[in-house]
Structure formats: C-alpha cells, structure tokens
What does this fold into?
Amino acid sequence: MVTWVMAASLVHVVDDDPAMRDSVAFLDTAGLEARRYEAGTELLDRLLKPASGCVLTDIRMPGIDGLELLRRLRAAGHTLPVVVMTGHGDVPLAVEAMKLGACDCIEKPFDDKALLQALRSALECGEPAKAADPTLQEFLRRVRTLSERERQVLDQLVAGGTCKEIGRVLNISPRTVEIYCAKLMAKTQAENLQELVRWAVLAGIA
It folds into this structure.
C-alpha cells in the first residue's frame, strides 16, 4: 500500500533550466516526489514500463522539445498523464500538445498553488477529461451563448492565431480582436487564454 501511494505521487520533471528543476523542490514537502531530468532523452532512457505518476515538461527545450517528448512517450506505449509548461504566447504549441494527449497546459510564470493543482489533477485523472465531463458540458453551453463573430474569434484563437493574424483573417483591427477576446473570456469564464484553449480542445471544438 505504501508503494502504491509513492508511485501515485511521482512527478517526472523535464526541463533544461537548472533553476526550474531546483524550483520544484517544494513538491517534496507537498506530498509529491519529484524526479528531475534535464532532457527528454534522459527521461525516455530511464522511464520504466509500466511507468507511474505523471510528467511535467517544458515545451521549449533544445534537442527533444516537449511536443516531441510527448510523441515519443505515446509511441513507446507510455500512457501516464503529461502536464506541459508553456510560455506567454505559445498558444499554437499548447493546442498541439493537447491534441497529442497532454492533460493540461500551465503558462509560465505560475505560482506553487497553480502547479500543485495541475499536477494533482493529472495524478488523479490519469487521462484527459472526456467530453461527457459535466464541466466540459457547461463549457459547451457557454460557447453556445457566443455571437457569430465571437465564435469566429474563438476558432481562430484555438487554431493558434495572434490578434494581428485574426484581424487580417476577419478583416477587423487587432484592437477589436482584443475586445472580442475579453468578451470570450467573460462568457466562457476561462481564467486565461491557456485555459480557454485547453477546454476548447478537450471539448472537441478546436
């Protein structure tokens, strides 16, 4: 029983930044065991099968980046949940990560509480949320309240478009796109763009 609890609380942290790897030391005091790797290849070489716990990986790394690591994990038959760390403006990468099977994306910089919540959710779920999830159903209900133009902006956002690019596609100004984005966030009750994209992908509308 003790072994199962330890396995279920294991977090494989992959990041080429030593400061980032050091910063997750607090996980040990939060009941989670953090194993650190400076490259995706190191994780792939050391990961046992069947693997336990979850993976926390940066999306931008030299060599094997977070997306390629996710692809290789799935190709190797590893099904453990993956949480991807993204930078501001990495919406296209976040969308691709979710489509590849990441269970969550968390934007840097983040606080300890947000990271713990993402990791514990990943460890509890063990797989991405399903479309039948009541939370997803509520998200879809909110999406149905969007105007036609707001829905067009949402579609462009989850496709990875920037405000300038969306403005060109829809023939409106970037500032107008920003206004529509603010309305989207309010109507869907998403806390940030990453969360909006995450729910859109999980709900199958991306």
The first strand starts at residue 10 and ends at 14. The longest helix spans residues 174-188. The two ends are 41 Å apart (CA to CA).
